Amino acid sequence: MYMRPWRSALVVKMLGGSTSYTVLSGRLNFLWAKSGGIHITNIRNGYYLVRFTSGFDFERALTGGPWMIGDRYLMVHVWDKHFDPDSKEISSTLVWARLLELPIHFFHKEAVMRIGKRIGKPVRVDKATEEGARGEYARICVQVDLTKPLLSNSALMGRNILYNMRAWTESA
Q: DUF4283 domain location, by residue (predicted)?
């Protein structure tokens, strides 16, 4: 019951610096409040909690990056009850992974999401992958654990599948 208002909330933090609440609020309202409203709370240690009234806006904010405020990247995470703003360590992030040299019969959402589990926690595939509009590579957004080594490839049916990951350096 107490956690209900936080189910559609993101924790955000600027990497390599900070900005004022006013600047951040203005920019995030411009970028994210397309279908509904957002409420931003400054919690501490450079972290902000952003609550959404629209599920569409929440999903877009979570997976539509990269997000930048000025020349700094904005880390975006789904809020969970174990979040501790006093912890200095950022232990996970969202990345877009390109799955290269993938056999053509794996170019559908379910297969790509399953392969994405080898990299981290799958969030979504991009539109071109979902629609089967591109055969050179598939793209998937995954949450990766930064305390573990990132995979660069794995075997799939005897074939080596390469992962080319970019941490919020390309847009969906």
A: 6-86
Q: How far apart are the first and last CA of the chain?
A: 34
The residue with tokens 């509009």 is 133
The single-letter DSSP state of residue 149 is P
Cβ-based neighbours of 80, under 8 Å, separated by 6 or more: none
Strand ranges across the sheet with 47-52: 38-44, 47-52, 9-14, 72-78, 68-69
Beta bridge partners of 68: 73
Residue 24 region, left (φ>0) first, then alpha (ψ -120 to 50), else beta? alpha
Distance CA(129)–CA(107), nearest Å, equals 7
What's this model's pTM, rounded to 2 decimal places?
0.63
**DSSP state for residue 4 in the 8-state scheme:** G
* pLDDT tens digits, one per residue of 61-77: 987 877 888 877 788 88
Cis preceding linkage at 5, omega within 30: no
